[in-house]
Amino acid sequence: MKNTKLKKNGATQTTTSFLGYIPRFFRLLLNLLRDSRVSATDKAILGATIAYLINPADIVPDWIPFLGMVDDLYLVALALLRLVLRTDEKILAQYWDGPEELVSLLKQMAQWAVAFLPPRVRQALLARVEQNEKV
Prior knowledge:
It is a single chain. The protein has helices at about 10-20, 20-35, 40-55, 65-85, 90-95, 100-115, 120-135. The protein has about 140 residues and is mainly α. It is globular and about 35 Å long. The chain starts with 7 loop residues before the first helix and ends with a helix.
């Protein structure tokens, strides 16, 4: 997760591939929201994320091609990354219906997502993820 620099063409291609997962991520978020094993704090974050996804008036309106979905994907990536750090992977895997392994996909998305963050925030987040991987 150390390489967060994305080439322009690679970033666009990566973003496009991640956008295809939004419906699956939405179902995952809804199922996690209903699961009693997910903490109340995480459920609040999931609920806010779902509300943002279904709200047509957000930071970048969804009617703007491509860019309108990038902010949604970014928020989903951050919410799910938090869940990876705080929730048993078996719970996440129970509700995941995608073709790829969820944690691996989320790590790829985290690399993509942190590339857009200010350097200090990016370093703090990556340090936390790397620390959690060692445990």
